[in-house]
Design a protein that fits this description.
Aspartate Aminotransferase, domain 2, binds 4'-deoxy-4'-aminopyridoxal-5'-phosphate, binds glutamic acid, seven-stranded mixed β-sheet, three-stranded antiparallel β-sheet, 13 helices, alpha/beta, globular
């Protein structure tokens, strides 16, 4: 008998975190690895946010907080939803959690029963599938490809829905494809969703501020499905606050109440100091995030330009987030020395060991033809890492 539960034995490790760990270990051994594996802005948290954290400590805001978050923080989030997204969520409909990762887990564990299906468009962020499995739900994936800019169509969604469907989970802007759904595309999906009264949707909008094509569009803006959407957001990406661990949802009150109950047993209210710091960011004009967004766009263009010079790299033009997800299936069947490349896992191991560049295999996101570059790092490192990738790939025959 296993000493560990089936639950943990069946859970896959987060591949993004696993690759980041592996590159740190190799770097500690003195290997000159450039890691483009983890999705984390390399900028520092803005000073005015750090000041708010110092003030919170000095003001002794150091006790347990209400489980769904400090009321003033939820009020600020409520205002933000109105200001940026035209969404009306009262503070009672908002739950602040230890990162958007916990927000998503709260919702899935609160809503999905064993055997219920959850639709997940490919490519998906790594943690969706494992959290669904933890809830004993059944992930039902919808394929896309670089040719369709990695977006699903309303027809595909319609076809994936069965009497067992409970939920759909997706992100816009998307990790890992960078695709951004337009208002018209979301409306077309909403027209399908409304026809299925038992279907709920987690709309993960954590990359809202890293959008290169203009205004962010929220799924919940369509009044006729507002009651069926859980809007997820957070400060990790837009405000360069990954370590502070603040994410949140806006949702129908009964779902927010369920998440509060779940969180009350797991973690309680999240860190008081991080909440006070995040509140300053959330209250500020979103223009404070534009400098970082513009830097990401410049890096995207740089990497896209460099990747174009590598044979067999098929890319879309990512309109947001900070990832590029090229189709690298051109290299399947090729080899060098003891390396034989049959899939994206083989290629990411080869590039790590032979090229000293850490990328994440597309397999982790459901698409084994692709590989993920996170370009949230300096231009110098980006130039050097793509050069290494190019040289390593050129050896494959
Ligand atoms: N959703 C997506 C699509 C992400 O890329 C991330 C980043 N890891 C998260 C949610 C979770 O973010 P965090 O827990 O740092 O708020
Ligand atoms: N979201 C980031 C990524 O995809 C951070 C790592 C994680 O939490 O999975 O790389």
């Amino acid at each position: 008998m296993s000493k560990l539960s089936d639950r943990i034995n069946n859970l896959a490790e987060s591949q993004t975190l696993a690759m980041a760990k592996k590159s740190r270990e190799l770097q500690a051994k003195g290997k000159d690895i450039i890691s483009l594996s983890i999705g984390e802005p390399d900028f520092n948290t803005p000073d005015f946010i750090k000041e708010a954290a110092k003030k919170a400590i000095d003001n002794n805001i150091t006790r347990y907080t209400p489980v769904p978050g400090i009321l003033d923080v939820r009020k600020a989030i409520s205002e933000k939803f109105k200001r940026d997204n035209g969404l009306n969520y009262t503070p009672e409909q908002i739950v602040v959690s230890t990162g958007a990762k916990q927000s998503i887990a709260n919702v899935i564990l609160s809503m999905v029963n064993p055997g219920e299906e959850v639709i997940v468009p490919i490519p998906y962020w790594v943690s969706y599938i494992e959290t669904i499995k933890l809830a004993e739900g059944i992930p039902v994936t919808i394929p896309t490809s670089v040719e369709s800019n990695f977006k699903i169509t309303p027809e595909q969604l319609k076809k994936a829905i069965t009497p067992k469907t409970k939920m759909m989970v997706f992100s816009t802007p998307c990790n890992p494809s960078g695709s951004v759904y337009t208002k018209d595309e979301l409306k077309a999906l909403a027209d399908v969703i409304i026809q299925h009264p038992d279907l709920y949707v987690i709309s993960d909008e954590i990359y809202e501020y890293i959008n290169f094509i203009g205004k962010h569009e929220s799924l919940a803006q369509f009044d006729f499905i507002y009651d069926r959407v859980i809007t997820v957001n957070g400060v990790s990406k837009g405000y360069a606050m990954t370590g502070w661990r603040i994410g949140y949802i806006g949702a129908p009150k009964w779902i927010a109440d369920a998440c509060e109950k779940m969180q009350g047993q797991f973690t309680s209210g999240t860190c008081s100091i991080a909440q006070m710091a995040a509140m300053e960011g959330i209250k500020a004009d979103p223009s404070v995030t534009f400098e970082m967004r513009d830097a990401f766009k410049k890096r995207r263009d740089l990497v896209l330009g460099l990747l174009k010079e590598i044979p067999g790299m098929k890319t879309n033009i990512p309109d947001g987030a900070f990832y590029i997800f090229p189709d690298i299936s051109y290299y399947f069947g090729k080899s060098y020395g003891n390396y034989k490349i049959n899939n994206s896992n083989d290629l990411s191991m080869y590039l790590l060991e032979e090229g000293n560049v850490a990328l994440v295999s597309g397999d982790a996101f459901g698409d084994n033809n692709c590989i993920r570059f996170s370009y949230a790092t300096s231009e110098d490192k980006l130039i050097e890492s793509v050069k290494r990738v190019k040289e390593a790939l050129a050896k494959l025959k």
